[in-house]
Amino acid sequence: MRTLFICAALIAGCLQSLRSQQQELKFNADGKFKIVQFTDLHYIYGDARSDLEQIGEVIDAEKPDLIIVTGDVIYGKPAEESMRAVVEQIAAKKTPFVILFGNHDDENGLSRAELFDIVKSYPCNLTTSAEGISGFGNGILPLKGANGRNAAVLYCLDSHAYSTIKNVEGYDYIKFDQIQWYRENSAAFTKQNNGAPLPSLAFFHIPLPEYAQAASDEKAVLIGTRKEKSCPPQLNSGLFAAMKEMGDIMGTFVGHDHDNDYAVLYKDILLAYGRYTGGNTVYNNLKPNGARVIELTEGERSIKTWIHLKGNQIIHTVNYPALSDTAEYTLQPGDLIFQEACSGQTEEAIKGVTESIGGYNFTHVGMVYKDERDSIQVIEAIPPRVKLTPLTDYLYPSGREAEACHPKSVVARLKPAYRHCIPQAVKEALLLLGQKYDYGYTLNNDKYYCSELIYDVLLKANGGTAVFPLNRMTFKADEAGEVLPEWTDYFRRLGIPVPEGEEGINPGAMSRSEVIEVVPVNLYR
Question: Alpha-carbon dihedral of residues 349, 355, 356, 362, nearest 10 degrees?
Answer without folding.
Answer: -10
